Amino acid sequence: MLEGVETVLKICVVGLGYIGLPAACLFADAGERVVGIDASSERVALVNEGKQPFPEPGLEQILSRNVSAKRLRASTDYKECKDADAVLLCLPTPITDKKMDSSFLRAACASLAPRLRAGCLVVLESTVSPGTTRGFVRELLERGSGLKAGKDFFLAHCPERAIPGNTLREMRENERVVGGINAESAARAKKLYSLICKGEIAETNCTTSEFVKLAENIYRDVNIALANDFALAAERLGVSVFDVVRLANKHPRVHLHAPGAGVGGHCIPLDSWFLMEAYGDSRLLPLCRQINDSMPLHAARLLKQALGGGSLKGKKIVLLGVSFKPEIDDQRATPAEPLALALKKEGAAVVAVDPFVKKCVFAELAPLDAAAEGADAVAIVTAHSAFQKIKWSDVRKKMRGNVIVDGRGVLKKAPEGFVLRGVGRGDLN
Ligand SMILES: NC(=O)c1ccc[n+]([C@@H]2O[C@H](COP(=O)([O-])OP(=O)(O)OC[C@H]3O[C@@H](n4cnc5c(N)ncnc54)[C@H](O)[C@@H]3O)[C@@H](O)[C@H]2O)c1
Q1: pLDDT for residue 164 is more than 90
Q2: Which pLDDT value is given to residue 134?
Q3: What angle do CA 68, 69, 73 make, to 5 degrees?
């Protein structure tokens, strides 16, 4: 199969999450016969009704169109993989105690292996520690099927670069890397992805492609750690790190990232640990992780200093933003959590305002009006665009105190009646 791709293929996509479901929809939209396999029967039922299980622009339309056309359906049963031409594994790979939790991937491989047929192409899309595809994924599939990878069936890793909120367009247009367990596997994976991807598809081996995915995110984590180090220097030197970054980035070969009150999400803070699991000797990566993880506590320190340096007992503090980045509701590994917990530990009452978030486990949520009532200080944690439009004079009237700590470089100068401090803002002291 997949030597030429003139015939309609049967493609099974295992794991109908943020990555698997859009990929399944795109292959169905390209005319292939797609079956999504998921362990969650609720998710399978929703997909079969053509309803999106999570918000993503354009997803519901492409999903319902392909379910109606009978090109896409979902099931909890791996039996569907028996006659598949290709199986995509889009399983979660979270981190527990700085190690990859491989349990989802192992369970999926164990379920797939007895149904794997000769000639099938298996592609791992999950972000993994280098060596995973060639290691336990290959072993589990070979042991359970009695087939040989690279000879009887084909095996590749194809990492995903798409960003939630723009997943469908990025899956179509981004360049991709496919890493095969051998050249034949990479070539077949390239052919498969060329059905949905207009960007260039580069072929390599699977350990390289696993490393490439990590290198992309670690580059950003290290770059942010550097910017955060500059932020601390700027505070000491009496200048704004945001001016330094903006002006340094006018150099054609410099691309400094934004410093701030911490790095969150399910990718950037995790991927260094994936690499360190395979290569434990890095001196740089643990240090960068430590710098970025320390930034929420640095913001808490700035806030405490601005409030006079004493106990925070009896103080009310408003956090602006609890999601890990602007304009989304995702709170995974958000720096708002360690910041809120540090303030609470010092005795402060913490109330959070976030236009995108409906539920938060580490702080009470309230509209800005109510949150500001009697508050001593405000900390800007997420640069939601709505926070650019705040009428600070109205907020000031409700507050007891007058402190703002800006963790994201949102405010250029103190709004009237406020004392402004900020991460990297030595220019304000
Ligand atoms: N979400 C992103 O933006 C993004 C971007 C790039 C890479 N990735 C990587 O892609 C992978 C998948 O991430 P995601 O965000 O799509 O995950 P997700 O949590 O949104 O979805 C995973 C799905 O897998 C299902 N599942 C779990 N165990 C299963 C099993 N044994 N059999 C069948 N289904 C099972 C779950 O029910 C869930 O629906 C991860 O490795 C992640 O790091 C994600």
Answers
A1: no
A2: 98
A3: 70
pTM here is: 0.93
Q: Which atom of ligand 1 is nearest the CA belonging to 159?
A: 7
Confirm if 357 and 336 have CB atoms less than 8 A apart.
no
Average pLDDT, rounded, for the chain: 96
Contacts of 160 (CB under 8 A, 6+ apart): 19, 23, 90, 125, 127, 171
Residue-wise pLDDT for 310-363, tens only, equals 999 999 999 999 999 998 888 999 999 999 999 999 999 999 999 999 999 999
Ligand 1 within 6 A of 22 CB? no
Tokens of 227: 């910017």
Spatial neighbors of 223 by CB under 8 A, at least 6 apart, are 255, 256, 257
Q: Are 59 and 52 in contact (CB under 8 A)?
A: yes
Q: How far is the CA of 186 from the centre of ligand 1 (A)?
A: 22
Listed by start position, the domains of the chain span: 10-206, 288-428
**108 C-beta neighbours (distance < 10 Å), count:** 23
**267 catalytic residue (yes or no):** yes
- Can you tell me which atom of ligand 1 is nearest the CA of 127? 41
CA distance 226 to 274: 21
Q: 96, exposed or middle or buried, with CB in 10 Å at 0-12, 13-18, 19+?
A: exposed
**Using 50, 70 and 90 to split pLDDT, how confident is the model at 429?**
confident
- What region, left, alpha or beta, does residue 97 occupy, with left being phi > 0 and alpha being psi -120 to 50 degrees? left
Atom of ligand 1 nearest to the CA of 16: 39
CATH number of 288-428: 3.40.50.720
Q: Does the CB atom of residue 354 touch ligand 1 within 6 A?
A: no
Could you tell me the distance, in angstroms and rounded to a whole number, from the CA of residue 174 to the centre of ligand 1?
19
To test the pocket of ligand 1, the residue of 18, 100, 111, 133 to mutate (highest count of ligand atoms within 8 Å of its CB) is: 18
How far apart are the CA of 18 and the centre of ligand 1, in A? 7
- The domains spanning 10-206 and 288-428 adopt the same CATH topology: yes
Yes or no: say if 189 and 155 are a contact pair by the CB < 8 Å rule. no
Q: Is the pLDDT of residue 2 over 90?
A: no
Residues 6+ apart with CB under 8 A from 424: 228, 230, 231, 232, 234, 235, 240, 241, 242, 259, 260, 409
> Comparing C-alpha atoms, which of 301, 283, 263 is closest to residue 377?
301
Assess whether pLDDT exceeds 90 at residue 302. yes
Q: Which superfamily does 10-206 belong to?
A: NAD(P)-binding Rossmann-like Domain (3.40.50.720)
